[in-house]
Design a protein that fits this description.
Arc Repressor Mutant, subunit A; two-stranded antiparallel sheet; 11 helices; 2 strands; globular
Length: about 250
């Protein structure tokens, strides 16, 4: 039995709201995002709401990155794509996340036409991230066994590997950073004009990028990076819950 249209509209709205809150996406406002998701569901029989919404935003991201909607939209889109790639790289490839993200982004731009399905643009981008990470790891792969002594102290390589306690601490740190990422995404959703200011804070303190890399990611001068970050921090200091989030992060 088909579900009532009102129920489907509600599920579309809830799905879109979750996606916007999680990722801080700005290419589509909530009403337009819901409308396009509803149309996608009507044209693709049997598709789940989440996949329809994800495909809708992939298509919007693809079109904006292509440049057909103008330079401002292209800049915004690549900023969003950078954050998607960096967050995935930070979880999957923490020791090479910056290099993997930059290399993947360069490959995506140069091979843009190879994306045959715009509704799967983010998976297309993530494939390039995986390829970049494999290449970077291959270049850096050590030829040492775990018993080989390394460093001036002559400590076996195996003894330098993280302990179970180190791994647990790392998991806690990741959870804390996720909390901070979520706080910033919610803030941007409520204050969309502050996007670049918050991105300047996020890329510095969560992504660990220097101002030169941040300037390229945001499409601004290095001098403006400091201005954006300072304004972003001033905004956040006045936001309820910021201090608790920062201490946890």
């Amino acid at each position: 039995m088909d579900r009532p249209d009102g129920d489907l509209d509600q599920r579309c709205a809830e799905t879109v709201e979750r996606l916007l809150a999680r990722h801080g996406w700005r290419l589509l406002d909530q009403a337009e995002f819901v409308s396009r998701t509803r149309l996608a569901l009507a044209s693709q029989a049997g598709i789940e709401v989440h996949f329809a919404a994800f495909g809708v935003y992939n298509l919007a991201l693809y079109r904006a990155c292509s440049g057909v909607e103008g330079d401002d939209r292209r800049e915004l889109a690549y900023g969003e794509l950078f954050r998607v790639l960096y967050e995935r790289a930070w979880h999957a490839y923490p020791t090479i996340c910056e290099d993997a993200t930059q290399q993947a982004l360069a490959q995506i731009i140069s091979r843009f036409e190879a994306c045959r399905e715009p509704r799967a643009f983010i998976p297309f981008a993530l494939q390039h991230l995986m390829g970049a990470a494999r290449e970077l790891r291959r270049r850096a792969r050590p030829a040492h066994s775990l018993e080989r002594e390394v460093g001036e102290e002559g400590i076996p390589l195996g003894d330098r590997l993280p302990s179970a306690d180190d791994i647990e601490a790392g998991a806690i740190a990741r959870e804390q950073r996720e909390h901070l990422h979520s706080f910033l995404a919610r803030y941007v959703r409520d204050h969309p004009r502050a996007q670049k200011q918050i991105d300047a804070v996020r890329l510095k303190f969560l992504a660990g990028l220097d101002d030169e890399h941040i300037s390229r990611a945001l499409g601004v001068s290095v001098q403006n990076v400091h201005v954006l970050r300072s304004r972003g921090l001033r905004r956040l200091r006045d936001e309820p819950g910021w201090h608790d989030s920062w201490e946890q992060g």
